[in-house]
Amino acid sequence: MPTKTLQIPTADGQADAFAAFPDHGEQHPGVLMYADGFGIRPVLREMARELAGHGYYVLVPNLFYRHGPAPVIELPEHIGEEARPAVFAQLMPLIEAHTPERVLSDADAYLRFLTAQPEVSAGPVAVTGYCIGGLLATRTAAAHPGQVAALAAFHGPVGVDGHDSLSKLTADVHFGHAESDLTPEALGELNKALDAAGVGYTSEIYSGTVHGFTMSDTDAFNPAALQLHWDRLLPLLGRTLTKS
After folding, report:
1. CB 153, CB 160: distance < 8 Å
2. Which of 15, 41, 113, 173 is the most exposed place for a label (fewest CB within 10 A)?
3. Above 70 in pLDDT, residue 244?
4. How far apart are alpha carbons 42 and 150 in whole angstroms?
5. Closest to 219 in 3D by CA, of 38, 8, 28
6. Cα Rg for the chain, rounded, in angstroms?
7. What is residue 142's three-state secondary structure?
8. Residue 136 above 70 pLDDT?
9. CA distance 63 to 17
10. Pick from 144, 158, 152: which is nearest to 115 by CA?
């Protein structure tokens, strides 16, 4: 599985990024993958490689490149409950500085770069994300309705911008929510907004999960929910992106 470390030109400098893609010398549909707040690390690289193995070029940018290359903060091998307060004390200023304006400016640069790669085929792309990356994926898809054919977000605060942003979506959508993140009532309201947008979607609470359930280097990890995430993500991409 070929992988690369790349530099993406942005309005504010260069964003380092990780890319994984099949080793066939062919072109493949592009997928922009937004990491969770902990950023690019072994578990994210493994997830990118796993997805690439199904026939996609997967680009994972360093969301906080303005503060340095990944890893922007030092992370323990396992991000357990004891480590979280110190990690979040360093992370929150970076998250708070990542304004909606920066998000959209970066999204333009990431998509421009992704679609220009020689290994990426022409046509629409997909955007997926985890935790805060789910929100960034949703904002990216809403801002690029003609280009993003599929949007997937897992344990992400996708409703935080209000439901007006969802009205701009044209992509097919899957939202996989943690049970600890969303009440059934809030899920109903979110799904009403997706109904109003007129997009094809699935939006569901993954039973027995807490925030961060896809990440195997955290205490939140739930192996069954990670598998369910793949069971939802792969068919979504398969029906929305054209493979050679």
Report:
1. no
2. 41
3. no
4. 25
5. 38
6. 17
7. helix
8. yes
9. 9
10. 144
